Amino acid sequence: IIGYLITTFLTEKGIFFQPTRSMTQEKEGVASAQADESYCIGSVKPIPDLSIEVVFSSGGISKLERYQALDVPEVWFWEDGLLKLYHLTDGSYVPIERSLLPGLSELDLDWFRHCVLMAETDAGEAIRAFRRQI
Predict the structure, then answer these.
(1) How many structural domains compose the chain?
(2) How far apart are CA 102 and CA 132, in angstroms?
(3) What is the chain's mean pLDDT, rounded?
(4) What's the pTM?
(5) Any idea what the CATH number is for the domain that residue 104 is in?
(6) The 17-19 sheet, strands edge to edge
C-alpha cells in the first residue's frame, strides 16, 4: 500500500516519476541493495531518488550503509507502524521530519502513516481517504 499511496500522491500532484519498484540498485564492486519500493523523481536515473524499506524482522537502518555507498538521496523505513526518513547530506544520512525531495516535501506524513495503518483493515477506504486529502 505504501507504494500505491506514493504513486497516487505523485500522480495527483503532476510530478514526473518513474517507479523502479524493487529493482536491485548496484554500483559494481561497491555495494548493492534491493528496496521494497523505489522511485526516480523528476527524471529517470541509474540510482533512484527514494528507496523504501518495509522492515518485518531484519535489516532496518543497518541497510543505510549500503544505500550510502550507492548515493541514494533519501531512504524511508516503515517498521512497527512508524515511518522513519533519512536524507543523504554531505555523505551521511541524517534523520528528517519530512521529505526533502521535490514534490514529496508536500506530503503530509502523519496522514500518510494513518492511511497505511488504515489499509491493514480496509485498503479501499484507506486509498479513498488518502485521495480526498491530496
Answers:
(1) 1
(2) 21
(3) 91
(4) 0.90
(5) 3.90.1570
(6) 17-19, 37-41, 50-55, 74-79, 82-89, 92-96
Q: Containing domain of residue 89, as a range?
A: 2-133
Taken as a whole, the chain contains a residue count of 134
β-strands 24-27, 50-55 pairing: unpaired
Identify whether the C-beta of residue 70 lies closer than 8 Å to the C-beta of residue 25.
Answer: yes
pLDDT value, residue 23:
63
Locus of grid cell 512508524: 82
Closest C-alpha to 96, from 70, 68, 73: 73
In the block, residue with C-alpha cell 524499506? 53
DSSP category for residue 134: -
pLDDT digits (tens, 9 = 90+) for 54-88: 998 666 778 899 999 999 999 999 999 999 999 99
The residue among 69, 68, 109, 112 whose CA lies nearest residue 87 is 68
| DSSP secondary structure string for all residues of 3-57 | HHHHHHHHHHTT--EEE-TTPEEEETTTEEEE-SEEEEESS--SS-SEEEEEESS
How many CB atoms sit inside 10 A of residue 106's CB? 12
